[in-house]
């Protein structure tokens, strides 16, 4: 297999520099809440605090990031201590009496709302697991594995989430098998759990069987319980960035399994289908929503460029290129990399803007809110750097 090693070396050095000298310094240490614990992450362009509320899932993501940097980059005490601030806040303030986690709390940790999914829990799992590895805390490892088991129960319907919604039009979404697969991958790579491989197999099979549609060349965001397309606006809506994220989770699993050919084929196929659906041929970048039949999409932000789909596409195209050597994926990676770092990166204050109009003009300056924080961008830069670092040693 022929790959351009000079190109990959250049990209690896770039991602390392961006992560350590641009992205991480924007957030830390100033975002660590020394008074109440956790992190203050709702920030404007220059890092000014916009709001001191805390999104629970982003608290978990930020704690995972700091613990992961400690585990894989350098054993800096500030990273370990910072990660502990997050896991302690999650444990002390972010679980309701019924055991379900909140989505949104005040700075002090008073509950504001819960949501109908359990993604706060999945990010707490990876935060607890990464911190357990970093600290050697066996009780934290036990908590990570216990919460992972609870997430499995939520995913299978054994445990019911509140609030309850009507099942007038039952559906299943790709988000649950996707996020559970990656949660299991993270758990396996930090502290280990004998359940991970079996469940990863199940979630990949679910994605392949229900959501990947070869006849119409797309990856559905949601389907009917039998896997058929729900011909209503929500059922037809595709999220290319989300499906591309799922593609790289599967390609990551292919690498873990000694370049499993079936998983390589599946991951690349998902990337191919959704690049064709999502790449904006006029302005560049990954569009946020598309309709499976090219009908109008309901959400007004459907043609905007959000930051995180670009991050997922950068990882997916790089993984596809390094695994297959296919020149197409190198070209795609160069396209999305150049677009994203030209349009989203703030050269003055660091980090990325979150939201652009379709033409690439800035929609607003916030870099942190209930949905954006130190996760997708630093994860992309960390993952790409470390993947290329490993490749250079082979």
Feature tags:
3-stranded antiparallel sheet, 2 domains, Glycosyltransferase, single chain, 394 residues, 13 helices
Written account of the structure:
The chain has 2 domains: about 1-30 and about 210-394, Alpha/alpha barrel (Glycosyltransferase); about 35-165, Glycosyltransferase (Alpha/alpha barrel), CATH 1.50.10.20. Helix content is about 55%, strand content about 10%. The protein contains 13 helices and 14 strands. The strands form 6 sheets. Strands 3-4-5 form a 3-stranded antiparallel sheet. It has a 3-stranded antiparallel sheet with strand order 12-13-14. Helix 10 packs across helix 11.
Roughly how many Å apart are the termini?
13 Å
How many helices? The count is: 13
Give the uncertain stretches in residue-range form.
none
The string of secondary-structure elements, in order, is: HEEEHHEEHHEHHEEEHEHHEEHHEEH
CATH architecture of the largest domain: Alpha/alpha barrel
Helix percentage: 55-70%
Q: What is the CATH topology classification name of the largest domain?
A: Glycosyltransferase
Mean pLDDT: 97
Task: Work out the radius of gyration.
Answer: 20 Å
In the CATH scheme, the class of the largest domain would be: Mainly Alpha
What summary fits the major beta sheet?
3 strands, antiparallel
> Would you report the number of β strands?
14
**Strand order within the widest sheet?**
3-4-5
Principal-axes geometry comes out as globular
Q: What is the count of distinct domains?
A: 2
- Classification by helices and strands: mainly alpha
Per DSSP, what share of the residues sits in E-state strands of 2 or more residues?
Answer: 5-15%
